[in-house]
């Protein structure tokens, strides 16, 4: 195979609609073109050439709305030599075109596309010539195409935010969501190349593994596309093993299939993070004709078993994901596209965000159905890090066409997506859509005679998954299950009574969903991130710019509403930023503690959401600049392998110990009462036996037993001890923080250098009084903290490791400590 990379410099022209109707490929103007980069999208090129301002800054999103009304044309020239023309086939390959495009080679029409989610291939051998060739890609305005389809539809389908988007296969979030701007992208958003092929190419490799006791039996199915009849050798090798399997094939023109069987004795298994290692095997396949190797490809796979267990119990029906026969409590978050302009998301971006997820003790991410099927690098990294993926198909919050042309488009998309992702052990479940079954049931789109889109999720997608990936569970929708799609008794559940219906986050304790695949709470992004999209005059909580960067209707008002319920509300942007983030952390803590204490009655807790696509006030744990919000640290502690949960309940403290390890242990649990100023009251201790992979209700303690008499000036603390070592601590405030007599923070921070480079330090925080949500900062630099926004318990030193980008060799950095009283 010869490959001619066609990425890099292109030319780009924007054409208003009235002009676009009059123009053709032969009549494109010679003036007005700007330089473009491929992979790329139009907005990035317009920014790079100064044609539009940064849409993320202030309210500039409004100033660039004209971009979506234009058609956009890309063009470039490339040179062809004899080597390419002499091959049996030459194909033009686009890994991603966003979205409605016509392709022209040397003035000849090659084809049209209408799906941004899949790769497109065109046979262009007969269109090419020796020497200079031209390539033009004409993108129609997605707004114009989609609104025209809606206008011609007999039934006007409805959807969240921008209903016309359901008439095409374009990422829905690009037209705006309640956390994202309206910046519908257009462009050659992934790679493009010419592939000149001899005889045949390897189309697909699928490794299907059956695990039977200590033996992994793998069936390797290989699809080939032949361009002529030929005799070839197909070789397969499991890297690290000596044996090579060979098949002699008599290829026929078109699709050809071959299959190998191999066994791996005593295989190393792939496990989710926290349960074991992430062993990945590599299979290499090569196709040869005589001594000439035509193509070589390799795929990675893991040996693991996945099943979705749903069994009747006293609460309804379980919803438990088992890996290698071990039930796994799924701790994690929902993933949205990491940028409004997708070509900016590279492997480094994925690695940063996925590393943050793993560091927060997460073992699952749900790829939400209003975004995209992510790049291969995303799934490769999830395989390596042990992060399980709940993979939605791209249908969200809307009704969808069921005409034959649309169902054919969906089937083609699903087949390509399943083939691309099915070798990844991290992908553990396919899901048909986000909230569409729920929306139909609760009449979000009004009274309908039928469920538009039902045949997609309940027929087309399960057929594709059943045929192409039969060993991985398929789930029709999220949420789904039971008499109501958002039932607490079975299936998965989206818990939005808190926040969306204005219920206080203490109400999470009333939610006994079997698998909570969405719940969340908003906060502002970090102050340094806010500074990046504002001017100084914008930096107050109710400024137009701050409100513009909250896309939920009434979102800013909700932040005030929920914050005032628990904490004193500051007036400065710094204070409002910090306190909304702390309140977010407190809210998520209540939900996670409740659902983990119910393990495996509840078997999953996925936060909405991990990340952002632009700088915004949202439900994310990590903002657009990849800065950790306060809630990130809360979640990291709440998802720890061993967790002590304290809950106040009618004059009593109920306690639980949650153990995610596969080994049980014995320990001593001490629960004690303290005044906020640090005076010890009384304590109760008990030896506890904690089984593996379980949650245990340990003991109920009356507040009187702990010496508690003034709940506005006292708190409860628990410590779990084993062999003189503290395994976990927990605090329980007895009233809302805004009503407590919290002392001003007077902590001592002892800083020690850990490495000779002067970039790693150990901070030991001690205080005679209780400190609520203490947070450290290093003056003058953005440091990385192992933990932050933690409670400081009197008499218990808190050790935090700090890494700085700047070297402090001759002197120690200046470390500051603040807490919730700093902004009152």
Largest sheet: 6 strands, antiparallel
* CATH architectural grouping of the largest domain: Alpha-Beta Barrel
Low-pLDDT stretches are none
Write down how many β-strands occur, each being a DSSP E stretch of 2 or more residues.
46
Tally of discrete structural domains: 5
Percentage of residues in strands: 25-35%
**How would you describe the shape?**
globular
If you consult CATH, what is the topology of the largest domain? TIM Barrel
What integer value in Å does the Rg equal? 29 Å
Could you name the CATH homologous superfamily of the largest domain? Glycosidases
Description:
The protein contains 14 helices and 46 strands. By secondary structure, the chain is of the alpha+beta class. The protein folds into five domains: about 190 residues, Jelly Rolls (Sandwich), CATH 2.60.120; about 100 residues, Immunoglobulins (Immunoglobulin-like, Sandwich), CATH 2.60.40.10; about 300 residues, Alpha-Beta Barrel (TIM Barrel); about 100 residues, Immunoglobulin-like (Sandwich), CATH 2.60.40.10; about 80 residues, Immunoglobulins (Immunoglobulin-like, Sandwich), CATH 2.60.40. It has a six-stranded antiparallel β-sheet. The protein has a six-stranded parallel β-sheet with strand order 29-28-27-26-25-32. Strands 1-12-5-8 form a four-stranded antiparallel β-sheet. Helix 5 runs parallel beside helix 6, helix 7 runs parallel beside helix 9 and helix 13 runs parallel beside helix 14. The longest helix is centred in the last third of the chain and has 25 residues. The radius of gyration is 29 Å and the shape is globular. The N and C termini lie far apart (about 65 Å). The mean pLDDT is about 95.
């Amino acid at each position: 195979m010869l490959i001619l990379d066609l990425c890099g410099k292109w030319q780009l022209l924007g054409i208003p609609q009235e002009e676009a109707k009059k123009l053709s490929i032969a009549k494109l103007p010679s003036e007005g073109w700007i330089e473009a980069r491929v992979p790329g999208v139009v907005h990035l090129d317009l920014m790079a050439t100064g044609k539009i301002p940064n849409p993320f800054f202030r309210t500039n999103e409004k100033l660039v709305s004209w971009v979506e009304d234009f058609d956009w044309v890309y063009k470039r020239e490339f040179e062809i030599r004899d080597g390419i023309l002499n091959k049996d086939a030459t194909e033009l390959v686009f890994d991603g075109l966003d979205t409605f495009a016509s392709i022209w080679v040397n003035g000849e029409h090659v084809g049209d596309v209408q799906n941004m989610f899949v790769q497109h291939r065109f046979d262009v051998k007969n269109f090419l010539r020796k020497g200079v060739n031209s390539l033009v890609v004409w993108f129609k305005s997605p707004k114009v195409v989609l609104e025209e389809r809606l206008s011609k539809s007999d039934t006007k389908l409805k959807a969240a935010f921008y209903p016309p988007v359901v008439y095409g296969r374009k990422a829905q979030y690009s037209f705006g969501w309640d956390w994202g701007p309206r910046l519908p992208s257009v462009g050659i958003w992934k790679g493009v190349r010419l592939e000149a092929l001899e005889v045949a190419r390897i189309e697909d490799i699928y490794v299907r593994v059956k695990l039977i006791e200590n033996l992994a039996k793998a069936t390797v199915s290989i699809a080939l596309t032949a361009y002529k009849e030929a005799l070839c050798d197909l070789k397969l090798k499991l890297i690290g093993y000596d044996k090579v399997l060979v098949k002699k094939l008599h290829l026929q023109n078109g699709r050809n299939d071959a299959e190998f069987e191999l066994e791996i004795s005593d295989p190393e298994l792939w496990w989710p993070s926290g349960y074991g290692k992430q062993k990945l095997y590599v299979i290499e396949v090569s196709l040869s004709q005589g001594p000439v190797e035509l193509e070589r490809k390799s795929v990675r796979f893991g040996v693991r078993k996945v099943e979705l267990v749903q069994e009747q119990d006293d609460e309804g029906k379980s919803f438990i994901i088992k890996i290698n026969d071990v039930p796994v409590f799924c701790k994690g978050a929902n993933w949205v596209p990491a940028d409004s302009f997708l070509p900016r998301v590279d492997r480094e971006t994925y690695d940063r965000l996925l590393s943050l997820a793993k560091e927060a003790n997460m073992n699952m991410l749900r790829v939400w159905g209003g975004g995209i099927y992510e790049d291969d690098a995303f799934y490769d990294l999830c395989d390596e890090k042990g992060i399980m993926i709940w993979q939605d198909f791209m249908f969200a919050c809307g009704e969808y066409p069921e005409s034959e042309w649309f169902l054919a488009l969906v089937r083609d998309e699903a087949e390509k997506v399943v083939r691309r992702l099915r070798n990844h052990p991290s992908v553990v479940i396919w899901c048909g859509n986000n909230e569409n079954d729920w929306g139909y049931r609760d009449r979000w789109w009004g009274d309908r005679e039928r469920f538009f889109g039902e045949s997609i999720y309940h027929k087309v997608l399960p057929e594709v998954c059943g045929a192409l990936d039969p060993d991985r569970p398929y789930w029709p929708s999220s949420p789904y299950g039971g008499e109501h799609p958002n039932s607490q008794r079975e299936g998965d559940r989206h818990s939005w009574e808190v926040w969306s219906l204005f219920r206080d986050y203490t109400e999470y304790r009333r939610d006994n969903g079997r698998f909570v695949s969405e719940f969340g709470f908003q906060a502002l992004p970090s102050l340094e991130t806010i500074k990046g999209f504002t001017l100084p005059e914008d930096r107050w909580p109710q400024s137009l710019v701050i409100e513009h960067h909250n896309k939920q209707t009434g979102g800013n008002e909700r932040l005030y509403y929920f914050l005032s319920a628990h904490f004193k509300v500051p007036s400065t942007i710094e204070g409002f930023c910090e306190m909304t983030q702390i309140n977010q952390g407190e809210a998520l803590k209540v939900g996670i503690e409740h659902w983990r204490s119910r393990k495996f009655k509840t078997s999953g807790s996925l936060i909405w959401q991990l990340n952002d696509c632009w700088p915004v006030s949202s439900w994310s744990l990590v903002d657009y600049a990849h800065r950790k919000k306060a809630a990130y640290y809360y979640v990291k502690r709440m998802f720890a392998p061993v967790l002590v949960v304290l809950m106040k309940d009618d004059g009593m403290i109920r306690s639980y110990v949650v153990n995610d390890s596969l080994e049980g242990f014995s320990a001593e649990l001490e629960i004690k009462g303290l005044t906020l100023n640090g005076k010890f009251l009384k304590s109760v201790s008990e030896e506890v036996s904690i089984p593996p992979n379980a949650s245990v209700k340990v003991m109920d303690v009356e507040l009187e037993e702990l010496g508690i008499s003034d709940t506005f000036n006292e708190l409860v603390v628990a410590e779990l001890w084993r062999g003189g070592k503290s395994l976990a601590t927990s605090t329980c405030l007895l009233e809302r923080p805004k009503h407590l007599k919290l002392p001003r923070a007077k902590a001592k921070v002892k800083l020690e250098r850990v490495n000779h480079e002067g970039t790693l330090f150990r901070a030991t925080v001690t205080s005679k009084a209780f400190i609520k949500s203490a947070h450290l900062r290093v003056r003058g630099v953005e440091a990385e903290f192992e933990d932050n926004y933690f409670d400081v318990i009197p008499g218990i030193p808190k050790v935090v490791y700090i890494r700085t980008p700047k070297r402090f060799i001759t002197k120690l950095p200046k470390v500051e400590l603040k807490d919730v009283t700093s902004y009152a």
